[in-house]
Each structure stands twice: as C-alpha cells, then as structure tokens.
C-alpha cells in the first residue's frame, strides 16, 4: 500500500510545492492551489484531474478511483484508494496533478532535469 510518506517523497521534489496541514489533512500545493490531499485517516488521496475525464476514470476502475463528494465536484479533482495503487502509479498521478497547477515552463524544466538523471 502507498503511504503518505511515499507521496511526500515524490511531492517534496516537485518545484514550488509546499506541504500544509489543513483541518487535520495533509495537503500538497503550489501557491494557494492544492494538487493533492489526504483523508484524515490517510487511506484516500484526492488529486487534481481533468473534470471532463474523471467519469471515465472512475467507471473504468471503480475499486480504485472515486468521484469527489459535495462541493468538490466543481473542481478538477478525483479520489484514489491508496491500497489500490503502487508507488509508480502514485508518482504518475501526483506529478500529473502538479503539472496542472504550475506554469508550463516550470514543468518543462522539471522534465529536462528528470531526463538528465535517467
């Protein structure tokens, strides 16, 4: 199972990311925009995801992904059960969510750095 520490190790390397505790929930953000957050029991992670694609994602893997509830439906947001994903998939979800909130030049610089390290 993926843990909050696994996510923290990925998110802490993403430029402009800060971690905050909001109402007993860990959140990762760029500026004021949250791109990943956890349920209080740290078993579910919400993350940025295009609204127009989330219904397909959730219906394709309903044991893994969940629709957001209430007011969160208006945001580019979806939920994932951490026990249902591995670290590689988590990394992809977190990095893609981060890309949604940073300027394209920041994401491009990150990609260039990652390519050099490989």
| Strand tally | 6
Shape: globular
**Low-confidence parts:** none
Q: Return Rg in Å.
A: 14 Å
Write the layout of secondary structure elements.
Elements (H helix, E strand, L loop, with lengths): L3 H8 L5 E6 L2 E6 L2 E6 L5 E5 L2 H10 L4 E2 L10 E5 L5 H13 L4 H14 L1
Antiparallel strand pairs: 1-2, 2-3, 3-4, 4-6, 5-6
Helix pairs in contact: 1-3
Describe the protein:
The chain has 118 residues and is α+β, with helices and mostly antiparallel strands. The chain has one domain: Aspartate Aminotransferase, domain 1 (Alpha-Beta Complex). Helices cover 38% and strands 25% of the residues. A 6-stranded antiparallel sheet has the order 1-2-3-4-6-5. Strand 1 and strand 2 form a beta hairpin. The chain is globular and about 40 Å long.
Q: Nutshell version of this structure?
A:
The protein has 118 residues and is an alpha+beta fold. It has helices spanning 4-11, 51-60, 87-99, 104-117, and strands spanning 17-22, 25-30, 33-38, 44-48, 65-66, 77-81.
List keywords for this structure.
single chain, 118 residues, alpha+beta, Aspartate Aminotransferase, domain 1, six-stranded antiparallel β-sheet, globular
